[in-house]
Design a protein that fits this description.
CATH topology of the largest domain: Rossmann fold
Strand content: 25-35%
Radius of gyration: 21 Å
Number of domains: 3
Structural class: alpha/beta
CATH architecture of the largest domain: 3-Layer(aba) Sandwich
Helix content: 10-25%
Shape: flat
Number of strands: 13
CATH superfamily of the largest domain: P-loop containing nucleotide triphosphate hydrolases
Number of helices: 8
Order of helices and strands: EEEHEEEEEHEHEHEHEEHHH
Strand order of the largest sheet: 10-9-8-11-13-12
Largest sheet: 6 strands, mixed
Length: 269
């Protein structure tokens, strides 16, 4: 126990084998859950801010889970400041529908998005128009873990924030993190010759400390995000280019499909 015997506040950086590893100050504590919380079936996520009581050595007990600013289901992580959505410019080619799905998920969860288009060394110039289209509405970085292109800018964007790295497998998430964080050595995968998609390499969710201030979440590779049920007319509000025009539509609940007086359809035409 620390000399003062008082509770400490920290952040859960990983959960494994029934224990929660909490970073408080410069120390990582291996914590069990207080019996009361277990009885209440309190869910503890990576990213949760918690109060803990230190015990002997670096052992501790989680006493309380503090209120969350947000919580994702897939990946299971809480209190995320920004989502770094990594897509490859080549191998595998970016899927615009999947990019939109990730952006909607960030908007629904009120997480600031950062689009990171990786593998610029693989003929990235041919995709400049594709990247520029997103750059009009969102923060966009073009990177290459192989050449170092854009890595300084990416590291700066991660400072003083909790960021989740997400995106389909094979786009280079783990490779980027290995390049940003010396000695990390996350396992990286290869691209399947048959499917042209990546093979999943990261098997758990963990918060990783950056060389300077900031934490990043490396998540298992996945090709889709779970979205909550929503009405069709509410979906447009998560597309900035549509949201800024829909107030000019003739109908308040315009679906921007066949309705007369649709400002969105007029802008497209």
């Amino acid at each position: 126990m620390n000399s003062s015997g008082r509770m400490m506040e920290g952040i859960v950086v990983k959960a494994y084998g029934g224990f929660y590893y909490v970073l408080a100050g410069q120390t990582e504590w291996e914590c069990s859950l207080r019996g009361r919380l277990r009885h209440e079936k309190q869910q503890v996520l990576v990213g949760d801010r918690v109060e803990l009581t230190p015990r002997h050595g670096r052992a501790g007990v989680v006493e309380k889970v503090l209120p969350r600013t947000n919580a994702l289901v897939r990946p299971p992580v809480a209190n995320v400041d920004q989502a770094v959505m990594v897509f490859a410019l080549r191998e595998p080619d970016p899927n615009p529908g999947l990019v939109d799905r990730f952006l909607i998920a960030a908007s629904v969860n009120r997480i600031e998005p950062l689009l990171c288009f990786n593998k610029s060394d693989l003929d990235g110039d041919s995709r400049l128009a594709f990247v520029a289209g997103y750059g009009q509405l969102f923060r966009v970085l073009v990177t290459s873990a192989k050449t170092g292109d854009g890595l300084n800018e990416l590291l700066q964007a991660l400072q003083n924030r909790v960021s989740v790295f997400a995106g389909p497998s094979g786009v280079g998430k783990s490779t980027l993190l290995n390049a940003l964080i010396p000695g990390l050595r996350l396992k990286t995968g290869t691209i399947s010759d048959k499917t042209k998609r990546g093979k999943h390499t990261t098997r758990h969710v963990e918060l990783i400390s950056l060389p300077a201030e900031g934490l990043v979440v490396d998540t298992p590779g996945f090709s889709s995000l779970d979205l909550p049920d929503m009405k069709l007319e509410d979906l447009a509000g998560h597309f900035p280019e549509i949201a800024q025009l829909q107030g000019e539509c003739y109908f308040t609940r315009c679906l921007h499909d066949q309705e007369p007086g649709c400002a969105v359809k007029k802008a497209v035409d």
